[in-house]
Structure formats: C-alpha cells, structure tokens
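batch job 7 of whatever, protein = Histidine ammonia-lyase
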Amino acid sequence: MGHSEVIVLDGHSLSIEDIVKVARHNAKVELAPEALEAVERASDLVHEWASGNDVIYGINTGFGDLATVPISRKDRRQLQENLLKSHACGVGEPFDEETVRAIMLLRINTLIKGHSGIKIATLQRLTDYLNMGIHPMIPSQGSVGSSGDLCPLSHLAITLLGIGEVFYKGRRQPAQRLFRKLGMSPLNLEAKEGLALNNGTTVMTAIAALALYDGVNTLKMADIAAALSLEALHGVPFAFDERTHALRPYRGQMTVASNIRRLIAGSQIIEKFKSERVQDAYSLRCMPQVHGASRDALDYVWDKVSIEINAVTDNPLIFVDDRVAISGGNFHGQPIALAMDFFGIAMAEIANISERRVARLVDSSLSGLPPFLIQESGLNSGFMIPQYAAASIVSENKVLAHPSSVDSIPTSANQEDHVSMGTYGARKGRTILNNARKVLAIELLSAAQALDFSILLKPGAGTKAAHHMIRKAVPFLKYDDYLYPLIRRVQELMDRSEILHAVEEAIGPLD
C-alpha cells in the first residue's frame, strides 16, 4: 500500500505516528538538509582522528573488553567490517517487514543528529533502502539490550557491505545479488561507521513504538467489548457515574467511564434492568479502574518511547564544537526495558478482565442467559470452548508478563556486566498485546451473541453500531457451527479498525 506523505528526518521531531506511516504504509523519507551539515562536520572530525594517534574508543581501539587493544592506522577500516561480521550472529525467525522498516527509520533518525560520525553517503543508502523497499534480513533473537541492539543492528548494517541477506519485493536473497541486479555498489565503511550503525536501542524501540500504537487502539476496543458485555449481561450503569470518578481523578479511569457512558447512551436494555440490583461483579463494575490503569500505563510508555525515538543512543558520542568523543552509556536499554515490561503487564490485565466477562456470559447461573449462549444446550455446546481458548491465552500472558528487565547476565568478559534485556521485553510485550486482541475478539463474538437474546430492546448508540458491524461479518448462531473462522473474522474487523470506525461514526471519537 503506497503513501503519498514524505517524512523529513531531522533527529528531533519524529513521532510514533510517523513511524507507523513509514513502517506500515510505506511513506517516503527525506533527510533534512540542515541536519546533514552536522552529520558532515562529525564525519570530518572522525576522519581527522582516524589519521592521528589519540586513543578514541571504537576508532582506533577494539570493542567491549577489547577496548584497551590499539588498532593500527592501516587496519582501522577493516576494524569496522570485522565488527559487523562478528556481531551479525542472530538466531531465530527474521523480524517482519514493518519492524525492519521501523528499525531502519529510527537508525537514520538517531544518526542524523550528528553525534555518531557516520558519512552522509551511508545515511543516504539506508534512506534509499526504505524508499525502495529493501529490507535487511534481521533475526529476531540475539540482543541483550545493552550495548544497545548490537547483534540485530549488525545484520542491518552488514547488508550495506553487500554481505548478508535482504528481502525485496517479497523475495529473500543475498544482498550482493540484489545490488548487482539494481546496479548498486556495496559501501566501504570508514572509521567509527560500523559502531555508529550497530550500537543503540533502535530495535527494542522500533518494536515498542509499533506495539504501543496498536495498544492504544486496543484499549478503545476493550471499552467497546466491555460495553457490549455490560448490556448483554443486563448490567447496571451506576459504576460509571461521573461523580464517582471525579473523586479519584486518574485520567485513564475518567476516560473509560466516559467512554462506557457514551457507548451505552440511550440503551433500553440498561434502562429496563437497572432497578434489578445496585451493583455488578467487579469485571463489569470496575472496568474504569482496570482499563483506566492500563491506559495510564500506556501514557507512561508513550512518553518514554517518544523520547527514545529522537535520542542518540550509540557510543562514543562525538561533540564537534568541543572536539571530543565521550564514552558513556546511552546505549543501555533500561528505560525501554522497564516501559515495555509495564506495557506487557498493562495489556495482560486487559485480557484478564475480558476473559472474566466471557466466563460470566457463558455461565447461565450468573448471566440469566441460555447456557453457553445457545438454544438447546446439551445437544449444542455453543460458546463453551471459546472461553477455554480465552482462558488458555490469558494463562500464557501471565507467564509472559514476568518482567525481563529484572534479569541481567554479564557479557564481554564482565566489562558489560549489567544489561537490560529490553529487546526481549519489547518482543514479549508485543506478543502479550496480540494475545489480548485475540481474547477481545472472543469477547466481542460472545457478547454479540448474548446481546441478541435482548433483541426486542434497543441497545446503546455505540454498542448498537459495534453489534451491527460484527453481525455484518458473523451470523447469530442458532446451533453449533465451526467457530474458528468466526473468531478470525472478528479479529480481522479489529485489525482493520472497522468496529472502532463504526462506533466512532455513531457517537464521535472515543478518547
């Protein structure tokens, strides 16, 4: 899918939404001319240093525990190539195309700030990759998240030398072969360039940015699913009263309560049954508190990721005006590691409470609805087993939600003796998110079926729009049917944002 918009990279103004445009919708990328001046000045200074004898890490020394080993002038270009060859040792399945595009975009954006010593030609080649749709093959496993994402970023960088593999137009092939086909020449990296390309938090941040964008939309879907379940279970509206939430004014909590009120506005079902009890079970009554806390968690993560995507995270950093290279630790992934562990926990809780609502929907002793939401239960099992599937997924999430950032393992002969594990934290955060979306699809399917038993009463404005959209894809089940494709269809509606768009058309944008 093409995208006409051009994202101009200057190292300071990239947004999470921009990342989605480039990674997912193939928006083109340009380098800001004013930023290139800083890149050139830093590159010139590195060239000057590489010709001299001052000891500067990564320019005329080895790496990691080998930082004390001097590298002679004649070997300094070979040092950069050796760095990438030896560090490109990832394992596991390759990252998907959109993740690789996000990784390339973030690498360009950090390098263009002019503190890394990269040549403009090297940056331009990465930009060409994005605009031409050339995607390096980057294995998904192998990073400890400090010194940054050395291993996966080396797989990105080594293709610039014509080594390794790339995907182009859906085909995996050696980079060298594609270069020949397209009339491109491999690059020769100068001093510091290999280290500039492979050192930093780019991979974990790219995964985090895409997962976070989807997570925010998933939280809106969670409110829609919850409102459908509330109506289907003939829940009462009192827990969503604005006055209650004003006394505990968390932004997320107040937002969810407002969303639920708007979704069920005008509901004859809620109106008819609201005098039957004063309060519901926690999975209904505490939706603002639980969904809201996850929203507040994602606000925290959004703030951290927004900083990181415009940060310089390689080492050493070059300060041209002061003519110094300073060795530091900006490559350490701890800020993203903690944030993505929090993200995973927040999304796991969305799945947990959703599964509890599904369990209530299928339990006739709690719901007052036909057992397992089907007529002639016994002969028909109805929606009994989708709840099992949801339960299995939330159980998986509980294991995955164990934080990876509390683990560390020393590397590089104990020179690098505390690492973040942030890349795995981001990867499993994304897995938890995808699992949560599956549970929500099961809730949406089950709640739509349950709502049909109140067919003579009109639902709320928002829930009616959601129900109508689900029914366009999935029929009401009178008898047992093959459920797998029905769950898939609801997932696809979510993936295309069709339910969300239908709801927002009916009641205005959800917060």
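notes: The chain has two domains: 6-200, 207-311+346-507.
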